[in-house]
């Protein structure tokens, strides 16, 4: 089903994942006109299932989004396919431009575009992403428990990642790859936890029958592994906000870039909120959905304030300063005479 864009909406939601759809559902239930514009590239698409989501444990990412779209539409929200390339100020609202030339106006914007994982350029790695190659122990740890797990060092978070995955398996190998070998306290921690360290660069993943079986090193040897954890840098999809002066900034953890906002999702640009991984790099599906609900409630409250101010101004409009003074004098006179 192809839905047509109207000229304008109370809220345009950019991104149709858990955060964006939950926000749209909340806004639609608040009787707001809302459209979700979704580019159709969810970060978790390669994963077999969504985990840690109460009541929907193990549901496929595709099915979860299909259900979410149907629920949002059931309350009057629109969900359209398209890639937003720019958001600009337009009088008292925003103009949203799509890659295919379409445009739409919005009074408020909810950004829920998520992140992009900047994966290492190693043969076989991208093809195994979300299956034999993972990043989050809470998302995938149970599925690879007790397997021979490798951790590819690609940044400052890799050491922490190795210690985390040790919770799910006692066979962990830390590959230094492009990072310096651990020393001092870090080396002691790995040794104490029985985590093997392999120095040198990894040049490719060994795949047999679509399954990871090992990592090939630059010296030609293959180190057998059944799963690989990669804490690749993550970058927020936020380039389309540049005209508003809003952009992603480096995360203090060194994990990548995110768009900063207050705890409700309100950004420094009035009228623009964010929800989900675009602002919270560690949020799983449940947390992203909750953030979408919270941001939507704040957007609705902000619109109510604006509409109330406009109603008060319209209510006062028929009265000139002279007539308002006369009314006040009449009221005061009535009070003086006990009326």
TrEMBL record:
Keyword terms, alphabetized: Flavoprotein, Oxidoreductase
Keyword Oxidoreductase: yes
Keyword RNA-binding: no
Reactions catalysed according to its record: [thioredoxin]-dithiol + NADP(+) = [thioredoxin]-disulfide + NADPH + H(+)
Family matches, as Gene3D superfamilies: FAD/NAD(P)-binding domain
Domain FAD/NAD(P)-binding: 9-290
Pfam family, one: Pyr_redox_2
A GO MF term: thioredoxin-disulfide reductase (NADPH) activity
Record's protein name: Thioredoxin reductase
Native organism: Allocatelliglobosispora scoriae
């Amino acid at each position: 089903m192809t839905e047509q864009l109207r000229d304008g909406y109370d809220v345009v939601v950019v991104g149709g994942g858990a955060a964006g759809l939950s926000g749209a559902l909340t806004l639609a239930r608040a009787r707001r006109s809302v459209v979700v514009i979704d580019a159709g590239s969810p970060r978790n698409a390669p994963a077999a299932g969504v985990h840690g989501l109460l009541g929907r444990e193990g549901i496929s990412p595709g099915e979860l989004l299909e259900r979410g779209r149907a629920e949002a539409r059931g309350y009057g929200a629109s969900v359209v396919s398209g890639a937003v390339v720019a958001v600009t100020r337009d009088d008292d609202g925003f103009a949203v431009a799509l890659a295919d030339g379409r445009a739409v106006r919005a009074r408020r914007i909810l950004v829920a575009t998520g992140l992009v994982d900047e994966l290492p350029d190693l043969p076989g790695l991208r093809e195994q992403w979300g299956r034999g190659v993972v990043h989050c122990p809470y998302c995938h740890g149970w599925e690879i428990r007790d397997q021979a797990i490798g951790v590819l060092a690609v940044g400052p978070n890799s050491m922490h990642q190795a210690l985390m995955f040790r919770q799910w398996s006692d066979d962990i190998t830390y590959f230094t790859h492009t990072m310096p070998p651990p020393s001092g306290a870090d080396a002691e921690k790995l040794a104490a936890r029985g985590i093997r360290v392999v120095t040198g660069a990894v040049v490719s993943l060994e795949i047999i029958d679509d399954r990871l079986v090992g990592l090939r090193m630059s010296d030609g040897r293959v180190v057998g592994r059944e799963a690989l954890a990669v804490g690749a840098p993550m970058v927020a999809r936020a380039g389309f906000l540049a005209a508003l002066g809003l952009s992603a900034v480096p995360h203090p953890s060194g994990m990548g870039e995110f768009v900063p906002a207050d705890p409700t999702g309100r950004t420094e640009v009035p009228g623009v909120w964010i929800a989900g991984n675009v602002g919270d790099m560690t949020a799983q599906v449940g947390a992203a959905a909750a953030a979408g609900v919270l941001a939507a409630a704040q957007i609705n409250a902000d619109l109510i304030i604006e509409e109330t101010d406009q109603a008060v101004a319209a209510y006062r409009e028929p009265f000139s300063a002279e007539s308002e003074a006369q009314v006040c004098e009449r009221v005061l006179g009535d009070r003086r005479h006990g009326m």
